[in-house]
Amino acid sequence: MTRDIRCEDVIEKLLEFLDRELDPQTEAELAHHMEHCRACFTRAEFERQLRSKVADVGQSEAPDRLRLRMRALMERF
Ligand SMILES: [Zn+2]
Q1: In a domain, 1, yes or no
Q2: How is 15-77 classified by DSSP, letter by letter?
């Protein structure tokens, strides 16, 4: 049985989700939520693309200023 989780839970665990650090059940719950929640799906995609961009540039440290701006943007969703 899958518990219903809230958007807040998804946001809180999103980074671990993308890093595949969650246990399989939690991961499944997040994936399930995203199938039905456009906002969380978009957020996950956004974060994923942000990461691949950072990786492309070959920077080992995340650009903190950019990240903070992105966070501010995301909170307005
Ligand atoms: Zn959601």
Answers
A1: no
A2: HHHHTT-S-HHHHHHHHHHHHH-HHHHHHHHHHHHHHHHHHHHT-SS--HHHHHHHHHHHHT-
pLDDT digits (tens, 9 = 90+) for 7-41: 999 999 999 999 999 999 999 999 999 999 999 99
Task: Say how many Å lie between the CA of residue 35 and the centre of ligand 1.
Answer: 9
Number of domains in the chain: 1
Cα 43 to averaged position of ligand 1 atoms, centre (Å): 9
Distance from the CA of 66 to the center of ligand 1, in angstroms?
A: 23
Amino acid in the structure at residue 27: E
pTM of full prediction above 0.70: no
Q: Is 2 inside a domain boundary? A: no
